[in-house]
Amino acid sequence: MTATNNSGFANSADSGGDVLLELAPRFGIAGRGARFSLDGDVEARSFTYARSTLTNDFVPTARLAMNANLVERWLYLDASTGLQQTRSNPYSAISQGTVPAARLQTAQYRLSPYLDHAFTPSLSFRYRDDNLWNRRSRDTTARNDSDVRGQSFVLAHRPTPFGFSLEANRERTKYLNATDSIVEFQTARGVLTYAADPTLVLGAVVGTERSEIAQSSSRDTIRGFRLRWLPSERSDLDLSVERRFFNNGWSVAWSHRSPFMAMQVNLTRQPTSQPSSFLLPGTGGDLRNLIDAAFTTRYPNPAERNLVVENAIASLGALPSVAGGSIEVISDYVQLQQRAAVSVVFLSPRSALTVQAYSLDSKQLQRPNASLTPVLPPTAADNKQLGASVGMNRRLTTTMSVDALLSGVKIDGTGDSRGRASRSKSAQLSANQALSPKTRLTAGARRQLSSSTETRPVQETAAFLGIEHKF
Predict the structure, then answer these.
(1) Which residues contact 387 (CB under 8 A, 6 or more apart)?
(2) Which of 21, 264, 278, 470 has the highest CB neighbour count under 10 A?
(3) Where does 314-438 show beta strands of DSSP type E?
(4) Omega before 161 within 30 of 0, i.e. cis
(5) What does pTM read for this prediction?
């Protein structure tokens, strides 16, 4: 239950005060076997407004993921499906407490069979066929459904001290509601690797690629280098830099952990023809995974460590709060995206401090000699984003904890959306009291401020009270 002075904050409109009742039954499923794993949850969240300042609403979300080993050490299958809600106007107010009324309902389905086999301790082979279907509904102004098929092949020999890998990739995207809707990338690479010592592997990359964008195709060369460095058992750097048809592309992943801290840094600059997908891994750090990493050295067994992580989260009273990641801006054309994300968690027996920050620059991908390309679609989805959050959780007693969160995000339109923008800031403080091993009471307050070129500035002050029970 939430008492708010502005129930319409998510619409960038002052709808006045109201009391909002939220019911969110959730059903979770998890299964593990010798050759399969299954995880999923379904939530049906309802919103009822006591003073009818807004129309009562119902918001379903769902996620189901499965992995199976069909033929031992050879054939595997990843399958997943999900339903989520995203805002149809990315420049509207960004609320940490309510679901936007003007939104898209997105259904995604993925089917990915793959072959993975090690012929010897040094020689391995992998072939993967990813099929992803995106379907959006509810908002009639922008649907941009898409079908994506990606295929990848890798034959790799571990450097001893020299090694190699042969790699081929193909990704084809079809936007169902757009003209000139086929985007395709095909790449082939040869990588020569050298292990300078057990902690440092260097690689030289040469290859070729064919790209098709807006009915224009081109064949170009690929040159680059790779580096894998493990300065200690707690640190890992994986770097790839390549010269491609769009100039320079890179992927950098750095992780470091200690008994009481874990950090992830991700930097990428790559073309993307896929809309954001909650079924695919993101560039930010998942907090549960970060907490898991902090305990890796002390508890190397995954099953034992999972129990330790669950106990650590339970001792804090809840998983520390974090703000959401980058805002999905749906496009029906290929973009060049440059991302940076940093996630850090500091742990003590009674506290957890989380810091997250990200930046995203998305712009239409064009060839260097743009005058020779056909007319490209409008660049309405181009944008720049910057966001950060700081969360603090402190256990006061064996059954009570407090949680604080500060966050801010801004988004600026570029290209055809130049001049559109939004800014949002929020602060939240809550207390969690365990009533029983399966029941928890939460009470708190939040303050939100937002400015947007779409409407006048809006603000919200709210107090909330909730109870969670697990069966």
Answers:
(1) 323, 325, 326, 357, 358, 359, 407, 408, 409, 410
(2) 264
(3) 335-347, 351-364, 383-395, 400-413, 421-436
(4) yes
(5) 0.83
